[in-house]
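User: Fold both of these, please.

Assistant: Here is the first one.
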Amino acid sequence: MSKPPKRPRDPNQLAKAIVDIATGEATGDNAPESPETARARKAGKSGGTARAAVLTPEQRSKIAHVAASARWKKS
């Protein structure tokens, strides 16, 4: 189940978006992505899995520790 696309908050832009959808000039979906964007998205999705497979458990633990300390760092 996908989320509906975000609508503009400005009333004029929202009205134009609604008219464009109603007249068929635009769909409710985002614009189709370019081949470069599709390739980058595919690489990004597989990149984390490939990186985790190469790292040792100690390296993964260290990365997780740094991330956790950054999240809980007091300002």
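And the second sequence with its predicted structure:
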Amino acid sequence: MKKEHTIILDLIKAFLEENPNQRFGQALFNLSINQFKEVPDLNQSTLRDIYNDKDEEIIERINARQSWLSFQKKVTERVRKIHGLEGMTANERMAATGLLTDFEELKAKDKKYARFILESLKVDEQSIQKILK
């Protein structure tokens, strides 16, 4: 077995130990090992063929996905701790949850992560678009 195989198996094992309620097939998708691709003409998704993916690419996808899942968990936990967000401005919501510094950094380098913060704070879509410009 190659070193990369061991890394992939260890990442899957750690994920399943952390998420024992997930089935193995779910873990493969949730770690972005298997992926869907959009089929625009049919307006549906299908499995993406990963046959030619290099092991290193799979490891990168798993690590990126774990970073995304960890980030989502962090944001969700911080938002849950604060009551009365609805009466605050977007900046006040970010400050109250301790996400303002994260947001400012992410706004410049990763709009997906920045958008997730705003959506989690229940900022309306029109405001999100203005803020992320």
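Residues 82-133 form one domain.
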